[in-house]
Amino acid sequence: MNIQTTASEFARKTEDVAFAMDELFFSRTDERGVIAAGNAVFRRISGFDWDELVGAPHKVVRHSDMPKGIFHILWTRIQTGVPAGAYVKNRTKDGRYYWVYAIISPIPGGYVSVRLKPTAQVFETVVAEYAAALSAERDEGLTPAQSAQRICERLHGLGFANYEAFSASALAQEAMARDGALGRGEDGRTRCLSRLLPVIKAIEGNQIKLFQAFEAIRGIPSNMRIVASRLEPAGGPISAISQNYRLMSNEVTDHLGAFLSDGGKRSLLDSISGRIDQALFMVAASRIQREVSEAAREALVSGGERGGFEQEVDVLTSLVDGYSKTTAEVLASVFRDVAQLRRSAKDLKQLVTGLDSIRVLCRVEAGRLGANSASLTPVINQLDRFHVEIDNTLEKIMEQAEDGKDLVERAMPRAVNRTLSPKHGGAIGHPRAVGIL
Ligand SMILES: Cc1cc2nc3c(=O)[nH]c(=O)nc-3n(C[C@H](O)[C@H](O)[C@H](O)COP(=O)(O)O)c2cc1C
């Protein structure tokens, strides 16, 4: 090989293949990942002829820069029957490369992968993370499963609960960046769901803050009782009040504890976030699936595809139907989750109002005791400060729960929203759970 050949080969390897923002391409495989069909855009970009693609394993376009861990994550997920999304760098027949964000969905007898051009900011981070993952695989001899675990840990470090949270966020960002680049308006549903996640996180933060505040004042009722016992017999009512306060504040911590630990398992708010991630992914993916399906239908009509393409149009059409159905179901479950969250916040407020009235009783009783109650003053002052703090936090939780409700309502397709609204009897899901919204 002469120097000139090597140089042109190097140039090719570092050259990416251009494709337009509005071009979506897809391929269909069997259950093992052997290519069965695809659209003309796929053939053109990959540079392979149909007879080289059809019947070949999809790794025919595998690029050596891709970490094995990513394929492990993808296959593990799609083999359980759920869609998966990932950034993938592919190699063309002539040695160039192209990056895509791929959405791989299980279909009867195999899978369909729909790809779009990545342009969101997060993509830059991904390129760096893939390079690090590849080095770790090479240097530390990681297996695909070990590398997958390492990738998930890295994503956790970047603030994503798991791979699904990352891929949902990345897909939503890609879809929004694509809408912007194509001069389309913002998709309201994607935007609302993206904004809902931080709201849920903020509620969780405030619930934890409340829980810790209650833990910190655990000692107050017993201090009150000790002081009251010194005032006997006049301190009797204070003893009773402190006993009530203790019982009721335990009820509040139980309520908060149950909410935060989901019966000793993971946090309920974590599972709500998980369902929002799922909804975000499904909403963004649905729009892409619909677009690729419409483009395929147009290509079939205009003669831009080869014979036998009708089957692909049918496959994509039923995939769109499946996506719409699942998206509506997932959104309905997010709707119920947020309703439950809001109801729980209201219950909490009621409990705290009850607790506050005990505090007021305590103040009144101390006033009645007059100068004898001086030793109670520091304890009651502490209780006053505590109530100001928890009232503020609770107020924030109530506002955030309202924001959550507004966002989820705006993210719902109108038809589902109508079915779930109390006026219509809440036909989907648990009527009581949605009734309070
Ligand atoms: C529908 C579908 C599409 C796929 N698309 C790609 C792709 O574009 N590029 C790629 O390298 N692998 C793709 N794969 C994964 C490959 O099957 C394979 O797992 C991967 O190339 C790694 O191959 P290896 O584990 O043999 O190295 C796809 C799999 C499926 C099911």
UniProtKB/TrEMBL annotation:
Q: Which SUPFAM superfamilies match?
A: PYP-like sensor domain (PAS domain)
List the NCBIfam families. Answer: sensory_box
Record-given protein name: Methyl-accepting chemotaxis protein
- Please name the taxonomic classification of the source: Bacteria, Pseudomonadati, Pseudomonadota, Alphaproteobacteria, Rhodobacterales
